[in-house]
Amino acid sequence: MNLRERPIHLLLIDDDPADRLMAVLALEQQDEAYQLSLASSSAEVLAAFQGPKERWPELVLLDLALPGTSGLQLLAQLRRVMSPWTVSVVMLTHSELDADIQQAYDDQVSAYLVKPRHLATFSAHLEALLRFWRHAVLINRVV
User: Fold this and answer.
1) Dihedral of the CA atoms 85, 83, 48, 137 (nearest 10)?
2) Which residues carry this modification: 4-aspartylphosphate (predicted)?
3) Whether the Cβ atoms of residue 10 and residue 34 lie closer than 8 Å to each other
């Protein structure tokens, strides 16, 4: 299987069942092959990054509002374990606050996307993200 056909290992981190369902439905509409793991807490996320790097998710979709540890705090924890060149973390959240966006980029988020309210728009945003990620990021990691 070549690089363009290999499923992307995604980790979706969101504690809100409705938001998680919307993301899953939007992902199901994609042509890109993917393997999806779900997490709703920082403990689940940190467990996903135990063991060999070959088993780590390649692309993390991280909600900002999580119980206990915020998405920004979790991002900072993840960046202590791995570099942005190892795993891409995309903040996927409802927050449009400039302070949240700036803090996410200060903490080395790969991208910041505001969750659309409509499935068709959400699907289009994820399609663009996955296509960009596959062609611009994943291929450059191998080269």
Assistant:
1) -10
2) 63
3) yes
Q: What is the mean pLDDT of the chain?
A: 88
Write the secondary structure of the chain as one string of H (helix), E (strand) and C (coil).
CCCCCCCEEEEEECCCHHHHHHHHHHHHCCCCCEEEEEECCHHHHHHHCCCCHHHCCCEEEECCCCCCCCHHHHHHHHHHHCCCCCCEEEEEECCCCHHHHHHHHHCCCCEEEECCCCHHHHHHHHHHHHHHHHHHHHHHHHC
**CA–CA dist 141, 119 (Å, integer):** 31
Q: What backbone torsions phi and psi does residue 34 show, to the nearest 5 degrees?
A: -150, 155
Q: Tell me the average pLDDT across 50-60.
A: 87
Alpha carbons 82 and 85: distance in angstroms, whole number: 8
Task: Name the least confident of 69-78, 82-91, 107-116, 125-134.
Answer: 82-91
